[in-house]
Each structure stands twice: as C-alpha cells, then as structure tokens.
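User: Can you predict the 3D structure for this chain?
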Amino acid sequence: MRTLIVKFSSIGDCVMTLPVVAAIRDQRPDDFVGWAIDPRCRPVVHDPLLNLIHDIPWETWKRERTSSLAQLRHYMKLREYRFDFGLDLQGHAKTAICLRFSGARKRWHVRSFDPLCRLLCRRVPDGGAVHTVDRNLEALAVLGLQVPPNPRFPMPPVSPVSSVGPLVTIAVGTGHPKKNYRRWAEVGEGLQRAGADVVYVGGPGESAPSSAGRSLVGELSLAETMAWIASSRVHVAADTGSGHIAAAYGVPVVSVFGWTDPKLFRPYSERAIVLDAGPAMDAIAPEMIVAAALQAL
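Assistant: Here is the predicted structure, written as structure tokens:
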C-alpha cells in the first residue's frame, strides 16, 4: 500500500505525527510511505522511516507570495507516486488542497473544522480520543491497522553535548505571543542556585534573559537545538515544539500551559510535568517551575 501523510507544520505537531508513521512501518514494513512537510520541520523526521519526503515550503510561499497556480503544480508532482491513501493530519484548507491534488485515491482527515477540508476529504471516524497523538492514531483504522498500545516516537539520532553540571535547557519562546512566558530569567536563576547548568535555547528573533545561564538563542539550527534538548537532564518550556521534542527523546519536561488546553497538546510522556497557568501565563510563579524541574531532576 502507498500512503501519503500531509502535515506541513508546526514542529511540535510534526513530532506528534511520528507515531502514525512508526505504526505503519511496524505493522506493514514493505509499504511505501510519503510525507508532505515544510522543510523547516524536516529535522524532526527520521529519514529511514519514509520512502519519500516531499518539501512543501509553505512559509516561503507566504513570504514570497507564490501564486496559487505554482502551488498546485507543486502538489501535482505527488501524482507520480500513485498513492492509495492520503491522511490529512493538519486539517486546514492548505493541506486539504495539497491532498486533493496529490491524486491519492482515498483521502481522509482527522477532526477538521475547515469546511473545505470536509468537502475534499472524508473524516476519520471519531473514536473518542482527546490528545492530538491519540487522535492522529485513530487514522490507522482507515488503513486497516491497529493502534499500538505504546506509541513510539522515532526521532533522528543526535550527538550528545557536554555540560558542567546537570543540564537544564529552557526554551524562551513559542510560536504565538499568547503562549509566551516572560519570567524565564527568574527560573534560570533559581535553577542555577540549585546547581544546574542552565542553557537557554530558541529561534531567530527570540530574546534570551540577560541573567544566570548560557544563551544559545538564535545561534543553533533546529537539529543542533534537538541535540541540546536530548542531552538535557530536564527541559523546561511553555507550550511549544521543544517540549514535544524532549518527550520524544525520553527527557523529563516541565511545560507551562495557559492559553492552550494541555489535554490536547501536553507533551506525550509520563515524564512530563504540566503547570496550568490559566488565562495569564505569567501567573505561574518562577518558584513553582523551579520546584517542578528539581523534582524531575
């Protein structure tokens, strides 16, 4: 069978898609599996799992105002692979259009509220799952596969990094201002007083606290950031992709939630501690985050 996964972004959402690909590969190792993904998210995908990775440079298209016709032509390149099934695990108009023009004979989406997506694809039967990982795994039923009792996250291997003490990485930003926590400096100071080696990580345009700890914010590629997170004794973040990366590598993670629902998006790990701030992210005291991180240590 030839199956296309359509999940352009974001980084955390792509990590939460990995168990679907792993289950297909585990149960039908000879299947042809492709993934349409934004290149900026590719580092979280372990290439040997897939027969095809088809770049969809969505963020570049938006920035450069690429024409709709050029986008459709790019989607149609997928037709040469003659996919039997297509799974839209993002559920947006852009991914539904990609899947429709991919030529996949049977097309399914998972719980989309986008009317165009519902028009172009059939909805995967709702099995009552709540968390995004479990919702994605429900799509296995339309492929004739079973939901694994212990979903696995096959992350790419990384080279370990060294530290002078118990390494605690802190992600300073998120993909949305309403999810940002602004008191990381106090968290870092508290952890450093407790003997931790604190390292701040983040992407371009994000700001590191000018206090205790080392800052690698804006200096690392995604793959390099993954190496630091995977080498951590604990990772600390708000609701962002780095928390999902940590959970996938088996690293204990402390996640601060507020604007989003942790029932849907919390790191999928028994080693995750979630602190729910409610509507005001900064309502969580830094001391609570420090205490949770030390508990994880």
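The first helix runs from residue 11 to 15. DSSP finds twelve helices and twelve strands in the chain.
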